[in-house]
Write a structure and sequence with these properties.
By secondary structure, the protein is an alpha+beta fold. It is about 45% helix and about 20% strand. It starts with 7 loop residues before the first helix and ends in an 8-residue tail after the last strand. About 20% of the residues are buried.
């Protein structure tokens, strides 16, 4: 129980309002006391004393209910659970989770919910973050109330290297003390890791694959400067071979750079919506000269309506170009290549788009199928190099599909051609209100 006396003038200033609100009570009490005095049941002095007590109870500004309510409000919402703290955590650009001293989740932002879907408010974070590095760092931070760091590999559809920083945060409590909370922030280290791997892979692959054409170019240059210096016929033949080798080196470097770029952004799924039907038609039209040169007919079986997926247009152009070009080069003996698109359902029941490229060439032996997407793997090294291949085309296709959260299916029967199927998740239709 409390009386609102924070301001002395407030006790006396609003008497007219208090009298107006208490008028009925005072009038009823006065009439009742007068009746008791007239009936000789009560003396006038006692009646006046009782009336003064009733008036005091009616006019003094008691604040009992407001005080109880304010204490309940303060006890119900801790400062750490206030909307302002939630807004700060939600506004952080990286995944962030705020835990209490026991390790229960108080707040988390959308990025953290996407990174670890098992996180739930008011539940222990250790059950959702099962990485040993995370649990060790969190336990040490709680025990010592000192910051801790940990780097771990988040193994999902696409592996990501993450750095966790556990920072003890003192938060004021209701009664003037402080509560040690733990702020978990996650930083994606994948781009840095991939840059390092890309640099190492590029140097290793380039030095290995460029050695042969560079040696050939060096030998031809020595020959042209020496024995074949005056031989016009030999010079033309050597220059033609040198041009082929230089073209192969340029394409090799281009494929290596493209593969490195795709690997660098493999953990970031494209968000733009693209219609793949005109992309496939554009690639097929661009490869018509190669098809005529190889005497192969390209048959297109595509739906008349748009088929939309979440994808990167330039990468999709490169993907379909590799698949159709491979079919034209290595399946040319079949005389035709069929490019078709269907909408189907994956094994887990999710809808997907499938683009199939089928040739009718010699096919591929079963023992080669599991390794076709490896870097520089060739079924026939001599034939591949003669066709101008670098051994990176299907590896690039696989990495582009991984970035688009798709998959590559390869079916082949020797002497009966091969079918390469690129499967993409179906884009969700826009929400209408």
């Amino acid at each position: 129980m409390a009386i609102d006396d924070s301001n002395p003038s407030s006790f006396f200033a609003p008497w007219p309002d208090r009298l107006r609100h208490s008028a009925i009570i005072l009038l009823a009490a006065g009439l009742a006391l007068c009746a008791l005095v007239l009936l000789a049941d009560l003396s006038p002095a006692r009646a006046i004393a009782v009336f003064i007590c009733i008036a005091a109870a009616a006019l003094v500004p008691w604040r009992l209910h407001d005080a109880v309510r304010s204490r309940e409000d303060v006890g119900a919402v801790r400062p750490v659970e206030a909307p302002a703290v939630s807004a700060v955590v939600a506004g952080m650009p990286d995944p962030a989770v705020l835990l209490d001293r026991a390790g229960r989740v108080i707040h988390l932002n959308a990025a953290a919910a996407e990174l670890a879907p098992a996180l739930r408010k008011n539940e222990l974070a250790q059950f959702a973050l099962r990485s040993p590095e995370i649990i060790t760092a969190l336990r040490e931070a709680i025990a010592t109330t000192e910051p801790r760091r940990a780097t771990y590999l988040d193994q999902g559809l696409v592996d990501r290297w993450m750095e966790l920083i556990v920072t003890p945060v003192p938060v004021p409590t209701t009664f003037g003390g402080t509560e040690k909370c733990m702020l978990l922030t996650f930083h994606d280290q994948t781009p840095l890791r991939r840059v390092e791997e890309m640099r190492a892979d590029f140097v290793a692959n380039a030095s290995h694959e460029l050695r042969t054409p560079l040696a050939a170019l060096s030998g031809f240059i020595d020959t042209l400067q020496g024995p074949a210096k005056e031989d016009a016929k030999a010079r033309e033949r050597f220059l033609s071979i040198m041009h082929t080798q230089a073209t192969r080196m340029a394409r090799l470097i281009d494929d290596l750079l493209s593969l490195s770029r795709v690997e660098l952004s493999a953990h970031v799924r494209p968000e733009s919506s693209v219609d793949i039907v005109p992309i496939i038609r554009q690639v097929a039209d661009g490869l018509e000269p190669l098809a005529k040169e190889r005497q192969v007919e390209i048959e297109i079986d595509l739906p008349p309506t748009p088929v939309t997926i979440a994808g990167d247009r330039e990468e999709l152009l490169r993907l379909f170009e590799n698949l159709i070009e491979n079919a034209l080069k290595y399946g040319a003996s079949g005389g035709r290549v069929i490019v078709s698109l269907i909408q189907a359902t994956a094994g887990d029941g999710t809808p997907e788009v499938r683009v199939m490229v089928r040739d009718f060439g010699p096919g591929i032996a079963p023992e080669h199928l599991p390794r076709l997407t490896e870097r520089f793997y060739r079924v026939d090294v001599g034939d591949s190099r003669a066709q101008g291949g670098t051994g990176l085309g299907l590896s690039l296709v696989k990495h582009i599909l991984n970035r688009h959260r798709g998959r590559l299916l390869i079916e082949s029967v020797p002497r009966n051609g091969a079918t390469f199927t690129a499967c993409f998740p179906q884009a969700k239709p826009p929400v209408t209100h």
